[in-house]
Amino acid sequence: LDILRNAHRQVPEAGFDEMQSYVFIHPGENLVLAEQWEQALNLAATGLEKVSEAAQRELHNWQTTVYQRWSLMILEAKDFSLAINVLAQARQAHPQERRFLQNTNYAIQEWLASELNEKGLSAAEQLFDKLAMRFDDAPSIQRVLEGFLQRTVQHLVTQDPAEAISLVRRHVKTLRPKAFRDLHILVFDQQATALVSLQQWEEAIAAYQQGLAFLPKDRHLENNLVVVWDQWAQTFRETHNWSAAADIFAQALETKLD
Asked: Which of 86, 124, 147, 166 is most buried (CB neighbours < 10 A)?
């Protein structure tokens, strides 16, 4: 460092000032090759306190690549817990580096999917709640968690709608209010849509009515319920069975829909 500082004073335009960073980057790369990641990061932190401002930028950028390479290596090994911890450390050291948050989102998504596939729904739910509590102040991570629950609900509702609703309600304390509502609507929509495709009109109507019992006056559910009543009546109008169509509309009116 002393040699480079003296060289910079004598030849300011030669780039010796920036070269101070390599006093730490070169041995740091040797530590990375030996997978001594924490030592490499500590060396960079030491260097940032000693080098010039111009060299700090280069050393700072190198430190971010160390975090990036370390976390990606851990992710490839599917050690999701450790990867998330390393990325949390990286985010704290470099809060403006968006890659670390993006990689955290990816790690959480993959961890939940792995837990579900290998250990089942109960284990995945426990992990979901744990992560939701840990990252309750991170909106993008909350969206990743909600996306996982949405995909799980979509898969489950085709097999067991009651369990899909139960799954959503088990996480009322960790879901944002809008996500909690939207997941309920998703279940009733998919259930009713499947029943309509089979022309099981009364069952489809019952699905929306069940939804409205839990979410009274919800405009989305009410509108879709009106559409189902109308589709049912339309099946009779197409055959000019006006009496049967009128009977369907009369039944709809009796439910006092707005």
From this structure: 86
Task: Please list the alpha-helical segments (H only) found in 77-174.
Answer: 80-93, 98-119, 121-134, 139-157, 161-169
Q: Taking a C-beta distance cutoff of 8 angstroms, is the pair 77, 61 a contact?
A: no
Quick one: pLDDT at residue 51?
A: 86
Instruction: Please give the model's pTM, rounded to 2 decimal places.
Output: 0.81
DSSP state of 175: S
One-letter amino acid of 240? H
Whether the CB-CB separation of 174 and 128 falls below 8 Å is answered with yes
What span, in angstroms and rounded, lies between the C-alpha atoms of 103 and 109? 10
Got the DSSP string for 78-104? T-HHHHHHHHHHHHHH-TT-HHHHHHH
Report pLDDT for 60: 92
Alpha-carbon span 185 to 218, nearest angstrom: 9
Indicate the burial class of 88 (C-beta count within 10 angstroms; 0-12, 13-18, 19 or more).
Answer: middle
Q: Quote the tokens at residue 59.
A: 């050393």
pLDDT of residue 14: 65
* Neighbouring residues of 191: CB distance < 8 A, sequence distance ≥ 6: 157, 161, 204, 207
Among residues 134, 57, 147, which one has the least CA distance to residue 88? 134
- Interatomic CA distance for residues 118 and 212, integer angstroms: 36
The gap from C-alpha 102 to its chain's centroid, in whole angstroms, comes to 10
Residue 93 makes CB contacts below 8 A (sequence gap 6+) with: 63, 67
d(CA 250, CA 121): 44
